[in-house]
Amino acid sequence: DTGVSQDPRHKITKRGQNVTFRCDPISEHNRLYWYRQTLGQGPEFLTYFQNEAQLEKSRLLSDRFSAERPKGSFSTLEIQRTEQGDSAMYLCASSFMGAQETQYFGPGTRLLVL
Amino acid sequence: AQSVSQHNHHVILSEAASLELGCNYSYGGTVNLFWYVQYPGQHLQLLLKYFSGDPLVKGIKGFEAEFIKSKFSFNLRKPSVQWSDTAEYFCAVNGGSQGNLIFGKGTKLSVKP
To answer: Which of A31, A50, B33, B84 matches a 20 to 30 Å C-alpha distance to A101?
Structure first.
């Protein structure tokens, strides 16, 4: 299977700790998106990359959040000084930029902040 | 502000019943519309999509959706549901040069065998 993969699938951490998630997109896709999903809600956009350039960040993305895609392939999302409100499912999606761009989602990383 | 509204939070149907899930969006321009499905324990999967052309689009597993521009709607339909359709369904929209998707809150569908 050459779909979007995410690691880890689950993460439990204590408040104040830093966490980092990884996303590997579908290999030929040049766009990579991060979303966050909480219980009872649809996914909410956080940020996205086109190749290695971070093109847009949501206001949901506080200063404690940072994302990178250093070589235009995999991406990392880091949360510093985690808070209980950061507990959520973090989803990654990738796509190929074009007229009929379609995003394909990974399995997500479920974060629990104690 | 751009938004997507899904009318029903939880729908319960018996097998063979017909399904229609509502989706309305607020977006001031050309839109692309999507339905994603999340089966229990699995990740979001694309069910169907609309970019342009025929407003009636067919997706996987017998699902279809109709884009009605005048009503800002993109309702999902299936003539006869199966137990295996039990899942959560999300409507999403983007448009113009905007790449990120705006999702509705989702509708949970439970199909009784």
So the answer is: B84
